[in-house]
Write a structure and sequence with these properties.
By secondary structure, the chain is α/β, with parallel strands linked by helices. Helix content is 24%, strand content 29%. Helix 1 links the parallel strand 1 and strand 2.
C-alpha cells in the first residue's frame, strides 16, 4: 500500500498506533509534536516498526514533553528522523519549512488530527474529514497554515 500518515499531537499517537497494527499498509509517518510518550497506555499491538518515520518536535513545547517523545520514538521507530526545532507545540515557525509536497506526494495520505478531544481521520482525495467517534462528521479543525497547504494540494 501507499498510505502516508501525517499526525499532530494526539493524532500523531493515533497514526503511530495505526502503523503498528498495519505496517504493511503504511509507506511512512510524519509526526508533528506527537503524543507517542502515551503509547504504552494504548490498547492493541504495540511493537517496533521499520517504516520511515519523520518527527518534528519543538524545544519550547509546553504540551508534549520533548524528552519523553525522544525516548518513545527511539524505542519504537527503527527508521527514524527526529527534528528538534526551536518552536512551540504548534510548530508555528517550523511548519512553513517542511517539504509538504514531498511528504504528501504520490500516494494516499491519511491526515490524523485532534478535534475537540477525539481523533479525526481524513483522506484528502476522498472529501470531507470524518470522525470515527462522536463528532458526527463535523468539519475537521486544522491549524490555518496546514489547512491551506493541504487544500491547495488537492
Amino acid at each position: 500500500s501507499d498510505i502516508r500518515i501525517v499526525g499532530s499531537s494526539f493524532g500523531g499517537l493515533m497514526g503511530a498506533l495505526f502503523a503498528m497494527e498495519n505496517e504493511d499498509r503504511v509507506k511512512n509517518l510524519t509526526l508533528l509534536a506527537p503524543a507517542t510518550h502515551m503509547i504504552h497506555m494504548a490498547p492493541g499491538k504495540i511493537r517496533k516498526i521499520s517504516i520511515p518515520v519523520c518527527i518534528y518536535h519543538g524545544t519550547e513545547d509546553q504540551v508534549i514533553p520533548l524528552k519523553d517523545v525522544e525516548k518513545s520514538a527511539g524505542e519504537f521507530f527503527t527508521n527514524l528522523t527526529f527534528h528538534k526545532v526551536q518552536d512551540d507545540h504548534f510548530l508555528h515557525r517550523t511548519f512553513r519549512t517542511i517539504d509538504w509536497e514531498r511528504l504528501l506526494a504520490l500516494g494516499q495520505t491519511l491526515v490524523v488530527a485532534l478535534r475537540v478531544g477525539c481523533p479525526v481521520f481524513w483522506v484528502p482525495t476522498r472529501g470531507t474529514p470524518t470522525c470515527p467517534l462522536s463528532c458526527r462528521g463535523n468539519p475537521l479543525w486544522l491549524p490555518g497554515q496546514l489547512r491551506r497547504t493541504l487544500w491547495s494540494m488537492l
